[in-house]
């Protein structure tokens, strides 16, 4: 199964891709283009608003006790004479985005000419669940607002542990399997053979 359609070869000499993210809010879908300035209209006529001030963290997994998470954020300078953006967002409350999906897309482009007339629709490569909204304040005017989302493996840390012994393996596969009776343990001691 191919991720890209047959008409697009990701190994062509000139290939572009745009990182796109869509937040499903109670007020509708908000579409953004990560790390690129401008407005991109996809082949389905949907606008994606971009800025170099938009950032996307790496996608973490539940490994070594790390709580799996990620965030998408936007840095900006607060206009001292304008309305307070962060206070405006606080009015929505913590439950505004909690439990709603955030979708990640890649927009394949065969070259710069397709930025204004794309042939293909964006391809979704991931869906996560939004959990939090937050802010970071740096100095008197620099601000960042962000949305935190869970990773695909969030439920992994709550999984019930199954010991890999004969009883645990039987619980896992649904039948008895005596082969694990001979599994080496930490008390395993080798035997020296004398002929």
What does this molecule look like?
This protein is mainly β and 195 residues long. The chain has two domains: 16-151, no CATH class; 153-182, no CATH class. It is 7% helix and 37% strand. The chain has two helices and nine strands. It has a nine-stranded mixed β-sheet, with no helix packed on it. The longest helix is centred in the C-terminal third of the chain and has 8 residues, at 166-173. It is extended. The mean pLDDT is 79.
Mean pLDDT: 79
Structural class: mainly beta
Low-confidence stretches: none
* Number of strand elements: 9
Number of helices: 2
Proportion of residues in helical segments: under 10%
Gyration radius over CA:
25 Å
Order of helices and strands: EEEEEEHEEEH
Separation of the first and last Cα atoms? 58 Å
The portion of residues forming beta strands comes to: 35-45%
Write the layout of secondary structure elements.
Blueprint lengths: L15 E10 L2 E7 L3 E4 L5 E5 L2 E3 L12 E9 L7 H6 L10 E9 L13 E16 L3 E9 L15 H8 L22
Parallel strand pairs: 2-4
Antiparallel strand pairs: 1-2, 1-7, 3-4, 5-6, 6-9, 7-8, 8-9
């Amino acid at each position: 199964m191919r991720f890209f359609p047959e008409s697009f070869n990701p190994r062509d000499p000139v290939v572009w891709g745009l990182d796109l993210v869509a937040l499903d809010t109670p007020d509708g879908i908000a579409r953004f283009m990560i790390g690129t300035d401008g407005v991109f209209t996809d082949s389905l006529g949907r606008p994606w608003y971009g800025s170099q001030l938009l950032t996307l963290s790496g996608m973490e997994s539940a490994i070594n006790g790390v709580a799996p998470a990620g965030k998408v954020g936007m840095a900006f300078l607060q206009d001292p004479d304008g309305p307070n953006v962060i206070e405006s967002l606080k009015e929505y409350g913590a439950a505004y985005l909690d439990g709603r999906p955030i979708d990640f897309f890649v927009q394949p482009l065969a070259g710069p000419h397709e930025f204004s007339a794309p042939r293909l629709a964006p391809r979704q490569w991931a869906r996560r669940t939004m959990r939090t909204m937050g802010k970071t304040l740096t100095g008197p005017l620099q601000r960042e607002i962000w949305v935190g989302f869970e990773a695909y493996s969030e439920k992994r840390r709550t999984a019930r542990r199954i010991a890999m012994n004969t009883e645990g393996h039987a619980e896992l596969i649904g039948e008895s399997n005596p082969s694990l009776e001979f599994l080496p343990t930490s008390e395993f001691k080798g035997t020296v053979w004398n002929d």
